[in-house]
């Protein structure tokens, strides 16, 4: 099984606004990191131009990323142990703060390419019911086929 | 366990290499006999402070290449000793949770920057790497930057990576300020298995 991932972010201004210039400038180098990262399988693209964000029916201010990875570790190392971490650190300069989940994962058969509709259904699910086997997070992670979340790392409660 | 000076030196040496170390290399580095080094290294493995493995230390393979050598590296789990028992880790986890809920990253980073500044100013050490050693970061040089082999906040960095790494960067920036070091900048440069911060000499033309 492969690990599919969706994250969404509400932009504080239109994507071509000056407030987002640093963010847009970071897109190409960050995608270069993800696409060559160990364990990277696939990501949804609007076109070959990395600064062209995915267009969809869920609102113009909503930025979406969908990708597929070989394992939890591969995705973790890209999200938190690469140049991508700097984007997360500066997220409040570019994205509206949200109290609801904005990122989630789920398992897909190898070779399956998730659609945005499928990913957004999982987002609705985690927002309605919290993490479960069909839509989960790093903090409450479900191995393939597991009905309960993985035990937390030593001594660390969820 | 680490009361014996030879054993302590061996542990320090292996941990500082950040890779597998053979018995000969460790013995030579500490200046003791190979058999004595082997004895202490195996004691450290028994105690879980080091991990052992078998590996060929040369490139030869197949018949005649010799049997694999025993190699050592630092063990994964962390040890904390506190007498009487204290549990700052659980408290730190609770506080990290609170910072997230209050959306208090910015305040947390400011507090971390102030703390770093105070720590560096209060230290007897005056050089950046010496202060980093003192704080447990295990600095080493690579391609003109100072990188950090150990994350002193590892468990929290696993549960709250963005908050903890941002605070750590701020603390490192504070340390630079506390030392009056304005020729070096701290930046996030994470990689698997290491601390997220690196130090880079500032471009003097700026």
UniProtKB/TrEMBL annotation, chain A:
Domain DUF3291 per the UniProt entry, residue ranges: 3-140
Pfam families (alphabetical): DUF3291 (PF11695)
Name under which the protein is recorded: DUF3291 domain-containing protein
Organism: Planotetraspora mira
UniProtKB/TrEMBL annotation, chain B:
Source organism, top-level taxon: Bacteria
Pfam families reported for this sequence: HTH_20
Matching InterPro entries: ArsR-like_HTH (IPR011991), WH-like_DNA-bd_sf (IPR036388), WH_DNA-bd_sf (IPR036390)
Coiled-coil residue spans: none
Name assigned to this protein: ArsR family transcriptional regulator
